[in-house]
Automatic annotation (TrEMBL):
Belongs to the glycosyl hydrolase 43 family. Gene3D superfamilies: Glycosyl hydrolase domain, family 43. It comes from the Bacteria. It comes from Blautia hominis. SUPFAM superfamilies: Arabinanase/levansucrase/invertase (SSF75005). Residues 158-203 form the Bacterial Ig-like domain. Pfam families: Big_4 (PF07532), Glyco_hydro_43 (PF04616). InterPro entries: Big_4 (IPR011081), Glyco_hydro_43 (IPR006710), Glyco_hydro_beta-prop_sf (IPR023296). This is Bacterial Ig-like domain-containing protein. Keywords: Glycosidase, Hydrolase, Signal.
Length: 567
């Protein structure tokens, strides 16, 4: 077993031996029951705070206005916790509710503002001036199992390098060493050793230390500006292809100028796709003029490029109407030439189904993706039923035709899927170990837009909804610490050397919400494509860390040492 050098734990994370953390309540104060509900965030140091449940509410009162203000948490002397809050519309009333774990709430009541807490409850611990309450780490872990753990994954340990050489022999230092992250994942990372490493080791029984620096791939953030729903495909020859929903910043917020093109970008490296790299070529492969006499966008959304059985295909959404932007359906383009940038693209039309009277594409449908498993080709998409956007799956007989009934895999049910609109959309697929993972995006497209997760065993019947399990919390969400908001509609790819799995997602660099009267997120060109590293937990589940987070918080944590002993 390799010896590992443990790095000091970053202050923002739970330290070894730490037994408590801090929990703090808050409301969003948009004058709605959704926003004026109990929200919770936690911290290990009272400085770095992480919002549970994707920044959505966890308890919604039934009494009074159904809206609270100024919530407070108390530890009771006998058992459990008490939550108190004012009524957002009636200053003379207060809300009370008991909880053992901040997951289940009982005994909710509604009392007058003159009520004294000490008259009814024995308080063991009151909140601190900042509103936080110290809680056992065991309580926090139970909360995280239900509402998520939106913490950064950071470098935790590096391999101890000890090299023995004979007198007069030059040392041979490893090109890569083993590192471990705070989620338990280990991998090999390249090291750049100091050029001053000794080449002459004539003396015996001496030891010297050589300094190196772990290589860290840091992609520009944003990676590509004004492109939402980003999709990157790494071809069998190593070339990278990028496409996304195209927005026109020069005509920002003017709907008729948005979502008119499918632009394909190509580079020999992933980093070469980035804006300003000078290492990519791109071409418009499809375009559509504004509809309704030039007044409305045709809504060309979420294009994806796939290579299926020797041919190229682009799936995209657009309206099937010349008068309405909203009659959108998945469509397909085909290119039979080797080079998709120079080849001819043929319009295959809307994706269709062979199944008579099936629900597929009978209403607002979008955000499609394709994946192959065990020789079968599958199609995933989002579709509205009763004005709610669900995720569906079916098998393909050819790239533009479904041959099995549509099966609903996910339906909005949690608060983080219901903000603004009841939405599950933007499915993406990645395989790892013995599982297939399906990410999707939930809620309206403001700063609370986030990513959820379904997964199934690779041996399961993927067309059986019961084969898929859904996590009750978002796995990727906004971060004030890194300035990234409204994360969603992601795809996946791999690094140039195929050693790292990466998530490609869009986000904004401003924190805005649907509650703002002047906010128009659909035609706002502020969604930009970014790249993030995926860390695999010890149980085989993906950990997406936080957006735009490096593997270390301080550059000095990338420094490693090798001990060279001459004997």
């Amino acid at each position: 077993m390799k010896q590992m050098n443990i790095l000091p734990t970053a202050d923002c994370l739970c330290r070894e031996g730490q037994q408590t953390a801090w929990l703090r309540p808050y409301t969003m104060d948009w004058n709605t029951p959704e926003s004026d509900s109990l929200h919770l965030e936690y911290s290990y140091n009272k400085s770095d705070w992480y919002q549970l449940n994707g920044g959505n509410g966890v308890w919604f009162p039934d009494f009074g206005s159904g809206r609270i203000t100024s919530p407070a948490l108390y530890l009771l002397e006998n058992h459990g916790y008490l939550v108190t809050a004012g009524d957002a519309e009636n200053a003379d009333r207060r809300h009370l509710v008991r909880t053992e774990d901040f997951i289940h709430y009982t005994g909710a009541s509604y009392t007058g503002s003159g009520w004294e807490i000490s008259a009814s409850y024995q308080i063991k611990k009151a909140p601190l001036p900042d509103g936080s309450l110290e809680i056992p780490l065991s309580v926090l872990k139970e909360l995280q199992a239900v509402y998520g753990k939106p913490e950064p994954v950071l470098l935790h340990a590096v391999e101890d390098i000890n090299v023995c050489v004979k007198p007069g022999s030059p040392p041979s230092l490893p090109e890569k060493i083993t590192v471990e992250y705070t989620n338990g994942m280990q991998e090999e990372r390249a090291v750049n050793w100091n050029a001053q490493a000794p080449e002459d080791t004539a003396g015996s029984h001496t030891s010297v230390s050589v300094v190196g620096r772990l290589q860290e791939t840091v992609y520009p953030n944003p990676f590509i500006l004004h492109r939402a729903d980003p999709f990157i495909y790494k071809h069998t020859d190593g070339m990278y292809y990028f496409t996304a929903s195209y927005t026109d910043m020069e005509h920002n917020l003017e709907g008729k100028y948005q979502y008119l093109y499918i632009i394909l970008r190509r580079s020999a490296t992933l980093g070469g796709l980035a804006d300003g790299s000078g290492a990519y070529e791109e071409k418009v492969v499809y375009e559509r003029k504004p509809i309704a006499d030039g007044t409305l966008s045709p809504h060309i959304w979420a294009p994806e490029i796939h290579y299926i059985e020797g041919n190229w295909y682009i799936y995209y959404t657009t309206t099937i109407s010349d008068e309405s932007s909203w009659r959108i359906r998945p469509h397909c383009l085909e290119c039979r030439d080797r080079d998709p940038l120079c080849g001819t693209w043929e319009l295959k039309g809307p994706v269709v189904t062979e199944v008579k009277d099936d629900i597929a594409f009978t209403d607002f449908s979008l955000d499609h993706t394709h994946f192959e498993h065990k020789g079968k080709h599958y199609f995933l998409w989002a579709q509205k039923t009763n004005n709610t956007s669900d995720i569906f799956i079916a098998q393909l007989s050819n790239p533009w035709t479904l041959c099995t009934p549509a099966v609903r895999l996910s339906h909005p049910e949690y608060a983080w899927e219901l903000h603004g609109f009841p939405v599950d959309e933007g499915p993406g697929v990645i395989k790892h170990g013995d599982k297939i993972f399906l990410t999707f995006s939930g809620s309206g497209t403001d700063a609370l837009y986030c990513v959820g997760l379904l997964y199934a065993k690779e041996t399961a019947d993927l067309l059986d909804a019961a084969s898929w399990k859904k996590l009750p919390y978002p796995v990727f969400q906004s971060s004030r610490a890194t300035g990234q908001f409204g994360l969603g509609h992601n795809s996946f790819t791999r690094s140039d050397d195929d050693t790292e799995d990466l998530i490609i997602y869009h986000g904004r660099q401003e924190e805005r919400y649907l509650a703002e009267e002047d906010y128009q997120p659909l035609y706002d060109a502020g969604r930009n494509a970014s790249v993030g590293k995926i860390y695999w937990d010890e149980d085989g589940m993906p950990n997406f860390s936080v957006p735009s987070q490096r593997i270390v918080r301080k550059d000095e944590d990338l420094i490693v040492h090798a001990k060279i002993t001459v004997k």
